[in-house]
Amino acid sequence: MRPGSWGPKEVGIGLGLAVLTYIFTGGLLVALASAVGSNGRLQDVGDSLEKMRRVAEFANQRLAAAAAHQPLPSPPALLADQTALQLGFAVTLLLELCLVGIALGLSRQSLRDMLHSVGLDKSPLDGIWRPGVAVVVAYTFVGGYAIVVRALGIDILTPDPTIHAEVLRNGWTAAMAAGIAAVLAPFSEELFFRGFVFGGLLRWGFWPAAAISAFLFAGAHSDLGSIIPFMVVGLIMSWVYWSRSTLWHSIIFHILFNSISLVLLFAAGG
């Protein structure tokens, strides 16, 4: 495939706008959670033992306050706030749409020409086995990586799930998580990280463009433990896109990869 009509300058501007968008949406989430009275907690407090410890600590504090005729303390917030999670997914929806807007706006092309540049005007079925095989390779690597770092006790390098089991406690939250992870994110993130960033840097060669776009993709997940495995996943998606000159294949890869993660999450939660 050939580099896009945009280049490193447009990519640099796009990345700056993306960072500002991440900061803005993060602040928006905090403001919205505060406005609706949510505690803003997106994950549970620790495991079952940690929850039991917090409950026992609260019971002791309550007994001590009652004995001293002092105001009773409020119960600790142990579980993720479903309102905060739903607001988080709503803000993520806005973020993903902004990434699409940045890519389209800075590509210096019409929508039709942009879709042609990234191969979205091609049939997604041509060579569809490639993303299928690539997903098997990628998931095998990510699973093996997680097993190894856990066995070595390297907590800082242990990948943290992008979506946690807390979303399963509410039907709307689960539906929003599934819709964003399996539908929206594969399209928006592939258009931005592979179509726009990788395509704009391709004039530097495949490996520099793939490495930079993969690193940025991994960093966007805001988890240090996911940097290495998601960088490898990003490199694989760059190759899947580059080898057939159609973004459909990296989108299909992304859909399959995220869907497998969702199926495993729902199966474990069930």
Structure annotation, total helices: 9
Structural class: mainly alpha
Beta-strand proportion: under 5%
Major sheet, described briefly?
A: none
**Cα Rg:** 22 Å
Q: Total strand count, please?
A: 0
Tell me the overall shape: elongated
Residue-averaged pLDDT, rounded?
89
Q: How many domains is the backbone divided into? A: 1
Low-confidence stretches: none
Helix content: over 70%
Q: Give me the strand/helix succession.
A: HHHHHHHHH
Distance between the termini: 44 Å
Report what the structure shows.
Helix 5 crosses helix 9 and helix 6 packs antiparallel against helix 9. This protein has nine helices and no strands. The protein starts with 7 loop residues before the first helix and ends with a helix. The chain has one domain. Helix content is 70%, strand content 0%.
